[in-house]
Every structure is written in structure tokens, then in C-alpha cells.
Design brief:
The structure is a single chain. The chain is mainly beta and 129 residues long. It has strands spanning 3-7, 10-12, 18-25, 34-39, 46-51, 57-59, 68-73, 78-83, 92-99, 116-119, 123-127. A hairpin with a 5-residue loop joins β5 (46-51) and β6 (57-59). The chain starts with a strand and ends with a strand.
């Protein structure tokens, strides 16, 4: 069955870095856009960044531009989120999700959460001095 499993979260000091991984199984990663989302306590889940089938990156949060990058290794069925210069406000549970829809549409990024059909369980990122 389709599964997405995030890993790599943890506690880091402001200015530090983390690399999150999203391991995919049960489907062919090549055909899908994958998005990273985050949810802080008391806040709605929000889009962070997405990578399309063609490896185009789309940022959904202006606050992470220049600090976060997304990449994919289809051979390893894994999508990565590199987070540098972490700030206190980046603390949240981070989720990866697979874009749903018909062939073609599923390879394109979207900021609409309901357009993602499978989600991982999330990984906690804590930023504290």
C-alpha cells in the first residue's frame, strides 16, 4: 500500500540545520509531485515547499526562501527537505504528502492541501536555544 514516512526531525539551535527525508513506498515516485507541509501548535497546517515531477521547486512560504531546499532521488524513492539557518518560528511537525489526481496533474505542485491524497505521519522539528 501507499506509504510516506518522514524522518530526520529533532531539536536544533537557532541557525542550525536539519535534513528531513520522506521515504515513499507502494507507488512509483517518479510520476508524482511531493509537498512538504508543517503545522505548529495552535496553527493550521501550511504549505512549505513542493517539488514537481520535473523537479521544479515551488515555495509556499516566503519565510523559508533562501533557507530551505527540496530535492528528490527517485532511485531511492525519497524526497529531501534541507533546512538551513533554522529559526524559532520554523518549529513544527513537518509532513510530506503525495499530490493526487489524474496522470499529468499529479506531477504538478499545488498549495491546496486537499489535492494531496497521501500523507506521512510527520516528524517533529524543534528549534530552541
Amino acid at each position: 500500500q501507499v506509504q510516506l514516512v518522514e524522518s530526520g526531525g529533532g531539536l536544533v539551535q537557532p541557525g542550525g540545520s536539519l535534513r528531513l527525508s520522506c521515504a515513499a513506498s507502494g507507488f512509483t515516485l517518479d510520476y508524482y509531485a511531493i509537498g512538504w507541509f508543517r503545522q505548529a501548535p495552535g496553527k493550521e497546517r501550511e504549505g512549505v515547499i513542493c517539488i514537481s515531477r520535473n523537479r521544479d521547486n515551488t515555495y509556499y512560504s516566503d519565510s523559508v526562501k533562501g533557507r530551505f531546499t527540496i530535492s528528490r532521488d527517485n532511485a531511492k524513492n525519497t524526497v529531501y527537505l534541507q533546512m538551513n539557518n533554522l529559526k524559532l518560528e520554523d518549529a513544527a511537525v513537518y509532513y510530506c504528502a503525495r499530490k493526487g489526481g489524474y496522470t499529468g496533474w499529479r506531477g504538478q505542485c499545488s498549495r491546496v492541501l486537499s489535492e494531496y491524497d497521501y500523507w506521512g505521519q510527520g516528524t517533529q522539528v524543534s528549534v530552541s536555544s
